[in-house]
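Input set for joint prediction.
Command: fold jointly, output C-alpha cells.
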Amino acid sequence: MSQTTTNDSEDGTLSKDQEDSPSIDEGSCGMGGGSALKKGPWTSTEDAILVDYVKKHGEGNWNAVQKHSGLSRCGKSCRLRWANHLRPNLKKGAFTSEEEKLIIELHAKMGNKWARMATHLPGRTDNEIKNYWNTRIKRRQRAGLPLYPPEVSSQTFNEDLQTQTIGEFSSVAAPHCSLLQGTDYDIPDGMMDHLKSNQGVLSYAAGMPDISVGGMLTHGLGSSQHCSFARPFIHRPKRIRESETLFPGFGGNTGLPLFDQFQGNACGKISRAELSFSYDPDPGTRGL
DNA sequence: AAGGTCGGCAACCGCAGCTAA
DNA sequence: TTTAGCTGCGGTTGCCGACCT
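C-alpha cells >
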C-alpha cells in the first residue's frame, strides 16, 4: 500500500536507488560473504532477477541466489521477498470477512503461530496475517475490547475439551499436560500475583471472559487452548521472550513444559464448518 | 497549511530446528 | 557426536500515506 516496494525507474533499468541503495550491509544476514549486501526495499529489477532465478532453479538454496544471479541480497532476504511478494498464487488486497473469521478462530486455537495459520489461508503469508493481527490488537486495545469475540473463546474452549476427551491427540498431549493437571500446579505466589495484576491487560485473558487467568490455572491447563496460554511460562529462551511480551517482568523460569507439538496436531483439525459464530472482526473500529 | 498521530505494510534481526559433512 | 550451514519462524522496526487537530 503505502510502501514503495518497487522504487526503481520506470524503464526498469538499474536506477539510482540500486546504486545508492537505502543501505548496504557488509555480510549481514548471519552469513558473511564478503561482498556488500543490499538492504531495504526491493526494486522491480531485483524482483525480476529473483523471479527469473527461481524459475530456472526452483525454490530453496537461497544463499546460492546471490552467487548465481548477482543479486546483492542475502538468502534470507531473497526467501522473504519470494515468499511474501513474488510467489505465484499470492492473494493480494484486504482480508475477506471469511478470512478474518478464520484468522481469529485460528489465533484463538494456536496463538502466534503465523506460519501455521498461513497454511489455512491459501494465498496469504504469515507476514500478512501477523501484520493484520498486530494491527487488530492495537485497535482492540485502544477500544478496550476483548481480543476474541466471546463466541470464539467459548467455542474454541469447548472444541478443545471435546477434542481432548475423545483422545484425538491425547497420546501427544498427555505427557505434557499431565504435568499440569495435578492438583498442585505449583504456581509461585509471585507469579500468580503478577498474573492477576496483569489480567486487565492480558490480551489473551481479556478475550476469554469464561477463562480468566486464575480460572485457567485452577481449571486445569490440559486443553490445547489452555496449553497455548501456558506457553508464556515455558522454560526456554525463545519462549521467555514471548513471555515477557505477554507478562512483562515475568521471567518465565517455572519449568513448565512445551506444548507446541500437540498444538500443531490440534490446529490441523479446523474446518470451515466451525465458523458458525456471529462475529464482528472489529466492532466499533471497522470504520476507523 | 503545517505538524502530529495512526494505520498498514515491508523488511530486518535473532533464534531455533534440521541436516549433511 | 559434533559442528557449520541453511532454512523457517516470530518479533520488531522503520517507512510512508492518510487522517486529524
